[in-house]
Each structure stands twice: as C-alpha cells, then as structure tokens.
Specification:
Bound molecules: FE2/S2 (inorganic) cluster
CATH architecture of the largest domain: 3-Layer(aba) Sandwich
Distance between the termini: 40 Å
Number of strands: 5
Helix content: 40-55%
Structural class: alpha+beta
Order of helices and strands: HHHHEHHEEEEH
Number of helices: 7
Shape: elongated
Largest sheet: 5 strands, mixed
Strand order of the largest sheet: 2-3-1-4-5
CATH class of the largest domain: Alpha Beta
CATH topology of the largest domain: Glutaredoxin
Number of domains: 2
Radius of gyration: 18 Å
Strand content: 5-15%
C-alpha cells in the first residue's frame, strides 16, 4: 500500500526543508518524521521519501540501513534498547537483558507476543557513568537494578497503580 504523510506531518516536512540548504541534507529528519507516523521504514516509505526529496531509493536505503535508529521491520509499541557495551556489561547488562527476555517472553531482536515491546541490544548509548542502562523509546533509564526495571516495565504496561 502506498505511503503518504498526514497533512500535519507534511507541513512538518515543509518546515524542515526550509531549514536545510538542499533536500538531501534533510533526509534524516524527514525519515524520522515518517517513522514517527508509520512506526518503521517500510519499502513504501523509502519510495515516498526518495520521490519527495528527489533522491534515488538507493541513497535513502543506504541511510536507513546505516542508522540503527531506523527500523527496517515493524516494531512493538515501545522499543527497549539494552546497552551491551563494556561499562554496562561489567555492571550487569547481561542479567538485565536476560531478565527482560524472560519478562517479555521474547529474545533480544524480537517483539513480545502482545506487540507491546520490541527488545533490542545496543552498542554504547553514551551513559556509561550510569551503567547499567536501557533506552525505552526516547528516554534513558539508568543505574538499573532488576527491581527498578520491573517497576519501569510495569509502568509501560500500564500495570502500576
Ligand atoms: S557502555 Fe552502556 S552506556 Fe556506555
């Protein structure tokens, strides 16, 4: 099915384009607008962005595949990134990942059956001094313990009172 932005998001793209010297320079923020609407960067989104910015689909796809923040397949309602680089690993990131896998019922790289969470592993998220940490959507959760993590997940599930 062909992709199109809502009129409101199309206005957002127009505004973005007015801040950049050329269309190509706006590629990342425009992809970001599309992902916020669609949830992921499907082949139809790539086609739309290529047409809108007058670029080849290869250029757009090259950027999408380079940056891990762009999802190339559908993801859950919330995306959890577990930092698995050295500082976090030394402070229990493996246990954090395993705890989440058990709690969500899916391995890293997959989405929970209820579609609520996608669990992904990340390289250093630049919060090493607060290790171990995870990023959920746009927010960081730092100095984690398993108990603290349980409370955070419950809040996202809407289970907390
Ligand atoms: S190692 Fe985890 S934030 Fe840097």
């Amino acid at each position: 099915m062909a992709f199109a932005l809502t009129p409101e998001r199309e206005r957002e793209v127009e505004e973005l384009l007015s801040h950049y010297p050329n269309r190509r320079a706006a590629l990342i923020p425009v992809l970001w607008v599309c992902q916020r609407q669609h949830g992921w960067i499907s082949p139809e989104v790539i086609d739309w962005v290529a047409r809108r910015l007058e670029l080849s689909t290869a250029v757009v796809k090259g950027v999408v595949t380079f940056y891990t923040m762009f999802f190339e397949e559908p993801v859950g309602e919330h995306v959890i990134w577990v930092c698995r680089t050295l500082s976090c690993d030394l402070r229990g990131a493996k246990a954090i990942q395993e705890h989440l896998e058990e709690k969500l019922g899916c391995k890293a790289g997959h989405t929970s059956k209820d579609g609520k969470f996608t669990l992904l592993k990340a390289e250093c998220l630049a919060a090493c001094g607060q290790a171990p940490m995870v990023q959920i959507d746009d927010d960081y959760f730092e100095n984690l313990t398993l108990a603290k993590l349980d409370g955070i997940i419950e809040r996202f599930r809407g289970e907390a009172s």
